[in-house]
């Protein structure tokens, strides 16, 4: 490939630039010198006139002038010296005095006529591009360019590969305390970056765990006085006051249960395994149907995928609980295509306005005006679902259902 490209470059250069071929010029000078050696003195003038037609400048000089030949010139461009050194002519008849012959600082090509005279070609063209240099130089040049491109590509790959590895580790990063996420190998700078990121992960994990333990402790410690409060409220004589107080106590108890469930994060420590996703979803639907909810399942009877069974069960249960809470009829659909499993939980409730759909995934955010009712939750169900789906590298979408209602769509890789 390099030779073909070099030949193409050589042809292009020869078509656009005046290229010097020292070997060819030397052969011409030698040929004219041979003709002059055989010609009579009276014929030499005519031969020189014919030879000097065009850009050539031949002259006959005494052979003794060859004693003044030099191999360098103070006025010669440095580029010409480098080209002669890198690409010396290796074909054709070598001229008298060699390929690098100078008289009075001017480069010439000479050929011996007889024992007393020699033929001298003066005023050689000035460009440094010569046929021999172009013939080999084009190939060398392209080889150097290709090597530079390959070296640059290798250098870029060497630098970006550890960065891509760090980016991939960051995408699947888990804040829980565990082994170092980022592999500490590579160049000194990459190792320093990996160590800094691992240190940051440990600090964040420690901070999150400390706050989680604190919240768990607070939530757990509230259960004891809440139980005592319930026992005391049950001894209140006024029925209306007792019922109102018990309702408040029950609501606080539910808040504590949901908060503890949210802080438990069992789905993060659960391992992935191959299981029947369709069977799990059908089981969830049957449980809601057994307690009197209008819920139906549509989808395959069997769908094997790689996921966390308990976490997906919890996510689908939360979605079905929300759907039965705000709608009278619920439909759960399961499908698979292009390596993704899609779970749709659709209800016929009031839906969620588009401007609130990104906020409802935040913990403790509620849109009571959009999905009103007396049995409202605490805004943790969808947050748990969003974390589980994110842990599966999936996607959670909240879509409109026509004519009314909401579709909660989970898409996870199979």
Automatic annotation (TrEMBL):
Transmembrane segments: 140-159
UniProt enzyme class: transferase
EC number: 2.7.13.3
Domain Histidine kinase: from-to ranges: 217-414
Domain HAMP: 157-209
CDD domains attached to this UniProt entry: HisKA
Compartments reported by the entry: Cell inner membrane
Major site of localization recorded for this protein: membrane
Superkingdom of this protein's organism: Bacteria
Matching SMART domains: HATPase_c (SM00387), HisKA (SM00388)
Catalyzed reaction equations: ATP + protein L-histidine = ADP + protein N-phospho-L-histidine
Membrane protein topology class: Multi-pass membrane protein
PROSITE patterns registered for this protein in UniProt: HAMP, HIS_KIN
Record InterPro entries: 2C_sensor_his_kinase, HAMP_dom, HATPase_C_sf, HATPase_dom, His_kinase_dom, HisK_dim/P_dom, HisK_dim/P_sf, Sig_transdc_His_kin-like_C
Keywords: ATP-binding, Cell inner membrane, Cell membrane, Kinase, Membrane, Nucleotide-binding, Phosphoprotein, Transferase, Transmembrane, Transmembrane helix, Two-component regulatory system
PANTHER family (alphabetical): SENSOR HISTIDINE KINASE ENVZ, SENSOR PROTEIN CREC
Protein's name according to its UniProt entry: histidine kinase
Source species of the chain: Shinella lacus
């Amino acid at each position: 490939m390099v030779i073909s490209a070099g030949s193409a470059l050589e042809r292009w250069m020869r078509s656009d630039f005046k290229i010097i071929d020292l070997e060819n010029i030397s052969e011409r000078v030698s040929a004219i010198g041979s003709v002059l050696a055989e010609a009579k003195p009276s014929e030499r003038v005519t031969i020189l006139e014919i030879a000097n037609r065009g850009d050539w400048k031949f002259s006959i000089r005494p052979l003794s002038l060859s004693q003044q030949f030099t191999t360098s010139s103070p006025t010669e461009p440095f580029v010409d010296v480098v080209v002669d050194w890198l690409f010396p002519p290796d074909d054709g008849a070598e001229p008298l005095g060699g390929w690098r012959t100078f008289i009075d600082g001017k480069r010439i090509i000479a050929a011996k006529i007889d024992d007393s005279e020699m033929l001298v070609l003066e005023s050689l063209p000035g460009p440094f591009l010569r046929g021999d240099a172009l013939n080999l130089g084009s190939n060398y040049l392209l080889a150097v360019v290709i090597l530079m491109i390959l070296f640059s590509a290798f250098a870029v790959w060497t630098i970006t590969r550890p960065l891509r590895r760090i980016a991939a580790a960051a995408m699947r990063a888990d804040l829980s305390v565990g082994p170092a996420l980022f592999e500490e190998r590579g160049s000194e700078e990459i190792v320093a970056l990996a160590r800094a990121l691992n240190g940051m992960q440990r600090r964040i994990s420690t901070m999150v765990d400390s706050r989680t333990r604190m919240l768990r402790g607070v939530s757990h410690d509230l259960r004891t006085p809440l139980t005592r409060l319930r026992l005391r409220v049950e001894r209140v004589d006024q029925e209306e006051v007792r019922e109102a107080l018990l309702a408040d106590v029950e609501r606080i108890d539910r808040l504590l249960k949901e908060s503890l469930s949210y802080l438990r994060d069992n789905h993060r420590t659960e391992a992935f395994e191959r299981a029947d996703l369709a069977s799990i979803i059908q089981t969830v639907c049957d449980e809601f149907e057994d307690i009197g909810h209008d819920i139906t399942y549509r989808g395959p009877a069997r769908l094997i995928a790689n996921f966390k069974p308990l976490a997906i069960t919890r996510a689908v249960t939360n979605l079905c609980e929300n759907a039965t809470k705000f709608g009278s009829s619920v439909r759960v659909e399961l499908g698979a295509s292009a390596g993704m499993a899609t779970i749709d939980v659709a209800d016929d409730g009031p839906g969620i306005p588009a401007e609130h759909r990104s906020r409802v995934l935040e913990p403790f955010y509620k849109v009571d005006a959009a999905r009103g009712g007396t049995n409202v939750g605490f805004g943790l169900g969808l947050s748990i679902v969003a974390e589980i789906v994110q842990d599966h590298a999936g996607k959670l979408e909240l879509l409109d259902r026509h004519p009314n209602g909401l579709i909660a769509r989970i898409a996870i890789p199979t």
